[in-house]
């Protein structure tokens, strides 16, 4: 993270004696990335965070993938995915795999119940809240999240998701194999957001107080490169009385992204919000559009030859896709090797527009995405022929 936080009680100096009311020492835990040569946080536990009493491998289903063959533009309707019913789902064991490659897995969940305690040790997770609200409880403290929030969870952060409200939240989940953060071009050498960045520290939310819970023999589901393990700890991991540092979970709402516009159409990098290992995340937000008198506001036909483009449509009316069948909750996948662009008639219809009311989350991956079981279950096979209006592409 680009700036320092301090939450709860900590001693004046690092790695010095810090005693509990009964005279015993608090247990330090240094959470650090990149071999402790980058950001870190120092947490103070009431009990030993190392006290494991049991561990067992957990068989995981629904993570298999298939290649994107035949290669074509694709459309998926997340609203068609079945969740709930018998055995209500949660945000961890109930997530369904949409796409993945060696760098990232992209999932969807509609949790109705509290998830188990969970720790992803393969990399950071990014959760976009499409609708609804939840409380994300972490070893650093709790975060209240709602529609439009991006939640960044650093690797190995023990947490759970507690849905609340009248309807279960709809969560778009990105599991990285490395770290997710603001693009480096937005930050100074010392990590401060620069003036040209479309968001800054004032827009971010982090834990504000410790979250303390009691418990013994507490299970934590841990994801590692070889699969899942259920680890049982002697004490509840939410026993941190204080922490400080620059590594912690944080929240940014898409409505606080300040769009960058110009006289003519701006390329996708102006919408970039995060970067991860071999992928980027962009936010397309309501904005004033191109104001050259002869501007064409919708995107030109383009071939991003080095990446797959995955767009999640979450609000408004997406001008370039009118007539394609795409709506709120849709995902479009335009893979490398396929030129794509506005639907027929969209260019002429957009001429003279002054503003677009659209919200979308785009992920560009620099390795091809494979299709997960959830993508296969909710595909609209007619999308690829929406430009030509004919062809046997529904099979």
Question: Could you give the topology of this structure?
Answer:
Layout: E1 5-8, E2 27-32, E3 40-45, E4 52-58, E5 65-66, E6 74-77, E7 96-100, E8 104-109, E9 118-120, E10 125-131, E11 133-138, E12 141-146, E13 149-153, E14 159-164, E15 170-176, E16 204-205, E17 216-224, E18 227-235, E19 240-245, E20 250-253, E21 272-276, E22 279-284, E23 287-288, E24 308-316, E25 330-334, H1 346-350, E26 355-356, E27 358-365, E28 370-372, H2 373-377, E29 379-380
Parallel strand pairs: 9-17
Antiparallel strand pairs: 1-19, 2-3, 3-19, 4-18, 5-28, 6-25, 6-29, 7-8, 7-28, 8-15, 10-13, 10-15, 11-12, 11-14, 13-20, 16-20, 17-18, 21-22, 22-27, 23-26, 24-25, 24-27
What's this model, at a glance?
It contains two helices and 29 strands. By secondary structure, the protein is mainly beta. A hairpin with a 2-residue loop joins strand 11 (133-138) and strand 12.
């Amino acid at each position: 993270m680009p700036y320092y936080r301090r939450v709860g009680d900590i001693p004046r100096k690092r790695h010095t004696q810090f005693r509990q009311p009964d005279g015993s020492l608090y247990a330090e835990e240094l959470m650090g990335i990149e071999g402790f040569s980058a950001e870190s946080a120092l947490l103070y536990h009431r009990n030993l965070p190392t006290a494991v009493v049991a561990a067992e491998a957990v068989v995981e289903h629904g993570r298999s993938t298939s290649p994107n063959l035949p290669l074509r533009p694709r459309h998926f309707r997340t609203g068609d995915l079945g969740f709930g019913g018998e055995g209500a789902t949660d945000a961890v064991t109930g997530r369904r795999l949409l796409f993945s490659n060696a760098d990232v897995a992209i999932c969807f969940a509609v949790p109705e119940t509290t998830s188990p305690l969970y720790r992803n040790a393969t990399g950071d997770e990014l959760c976009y809240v499409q609708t609804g609200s939840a409380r994300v409880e972490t070893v650093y403290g709790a975060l209240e999240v709602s529609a439009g929030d991006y939640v960044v969870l650093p690797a190995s952060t023990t947490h759970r998701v507690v849905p609340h409200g009248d309807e279960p939240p709809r969560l778009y989940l990105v599991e990285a194999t490395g770290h997710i953060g603001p693009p480096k071009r937005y930050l100074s050498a010392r990590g401060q957001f620069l003036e040209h960045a479309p968001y800054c520290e004032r827009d971010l939310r982090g834990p504000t107080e410790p979250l303390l819970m009691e418990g013994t023999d507490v299970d934590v589901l841990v994801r590692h490169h070889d699969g899942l393990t259920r680890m049982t700890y002697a004490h509840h991991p939410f026993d941190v009385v204080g922490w400080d540092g620059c590594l912690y979970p944080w929240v940014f709402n898409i409505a606080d992204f300040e769009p960058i516009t110009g006289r003519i159409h701006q390329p996708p990098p102006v919408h970039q919000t995060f970067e991860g290992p071999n992928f980027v995340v962009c936010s397309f937000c309501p904005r004033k559009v191109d104001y050259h008198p002869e501007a064409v506001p919708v995107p030109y036909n383009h071939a991003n030859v080095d990446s797959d483009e995955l767009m999640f449509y979450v609000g408004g009316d997406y001008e370039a896709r009118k007539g394609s069948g795409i709506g709120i909750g849709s995902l479009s996948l335009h893979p490398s090797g396929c030129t794509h662009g506005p639907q027929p008639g969209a260019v002429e219809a957009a001429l003279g527009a002054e503003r677009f009311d659209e919200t979308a989350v785009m992920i560009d991956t620099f390795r091809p995405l494979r299709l997960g079981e959830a993508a296969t279950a909710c595909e609209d096979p007619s999308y690829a022929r929406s430009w030509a209006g004919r062809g046997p592409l529904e099979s």
